[in-house]
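The records we work with from here on pair a chain with its fold. Each token is a code from a learned vocabulary of local backbone shapes. A record is reproduced here so that you can trace the correspondence yourselves:

_____
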Amino acid sequence: MSSQLLVSGARDDANNAHVPEVIFPAGNNDFREVRNRCARACREFNNTPEDADPEKRSQKWLDIVRPDRDRREDGPAITHDQTFANPNLKAKTPFVKPPVWIDYGIRLHVGGSTFINRDCKIMDTPVADIVIGEGCNIGPNCVIVGVKHPLRLDERLMRHSIGQPVTIGNDVWIGANVTIL
């Protein structure tokens, strides 16, 4: 992508750490194409019945988060029902109840043993990762936001967005209607 990106940062006072932020032109044609592709993939996923074949649901999820993968390497899907029966099995894709709404998908990484309930909205960016670990449970109607906009008017008028990473560790339970910024 030929867009110019600017890396800055903010302080995470709770951990006394530097949190990288990347300023990017969200209206750029390359970014718009990625958003449109992700919107189509989300629509396909959301239109796939919850009780559809696990292979199909897994492929539809991977179309959102790994659109450029070699589909021959997808392999058989391991369902979450199978992992309950045999804890030695590891699902490679999370169990996600539709609908789910994701902006870009390409920098979203979700552990295969994670469960995401209905109406999850992930406002991700093409410039910063959102990572959700293994064994997480995310309640219905949650929002995970990895993008923000400048606070100062003169900076907002430039129409840039700011991407920042979001990391949710392993085995985290997030109740219903939670917003993570």
Residues 6-180 form a domain with the UDP N-Acetylglucosamine Acyltransferase; domain 1 fold (CATH 2.160.10.10). Residues 65 and 105 are 5 Å apart (CA to CA). The helical segments are 29-46, 54-65, 80-85, 153-156. The two ends are 26 Å apart (CA to CA).
